[in-house]
Amino acid sequence: MGSLTAMRLAQEGAGEILLVDIVKGLAEGKAFDIQDARQALKADYDIKGSADIGDIAGCDIVVFTAGLARKPGMTREELLNKNASIVRGVSLDIKRFAPEAVVIVVTNPLDLMTRLVLEATGFKRERVFGMGLSLDASRFANIISEELKVALSDIEPCVIGSHGEGMMPLARFTIIKGIPLDEIIDDEKAAVLIKRTVARGHEIVTLLGSGSAYFAPSAAITAMVKAVVKDEKRLIGACVSLKGEYGINDACLGVPCRIGREGIEGIVELGLDLHQKERLLEVAAKLKEQYRGIALT
Question: 0.90 cut: is pTM over it?
């Protein structure tokens, strides 16, 4: 996923790009391969590879993909203890070598790893956030488009909650040509689309048989990086540490955020109904309980 993201960012002209992998030669080889595409693409970009984490010194943005990928039959939560020790170590390296960077977390289980990176680095919450919900929203829009035969460009999807079983695609806040989705389809049909969205990641992993999704996640990461690099002030669903928003404290989970040069520059609080509020609080409580487990390891 990291190398595909790097290729997308290179083609977008996002700036100098560095690939880092602890496996000696892997990042360098991938960087050379991406460099060799420049002439065919008629694109001038600067990309390098390294096995030395210290080379991130001076980086403005760090995309955090370190950790194990989910395998068929494995939930994101099962990755928890396996990835926690990896994430802690890399977070300390980021704190040491790139103390001013904006960090975009991709490692699963994403909501818990985002909080772990935030606390291990000690960075402000505006500079550490997770990618998950922007990917989930893209999946929701794609499923809606296929079902309703509507152009994706006409769909503004809305998903909140955690990146996993606790995600909440919201029909009332998903807009199609200016009309809320719940005014276009009935509750039963909406429930089917929501269920398919929640299961999409697992479905892809199962079909692949080995590895996980790459194309859509790399596109979602690229959109977030562009929002920071180009100071777009763009509204994107992101996993962020909440400090009273939605009545939640001490948990990282996904909500609509405005992303620009400084990272998270605003958090949008949707007017949720009572059921949605209760569900979001349940998701936050579960994340807190799971996080207490890794905090003790």
Answer: yes
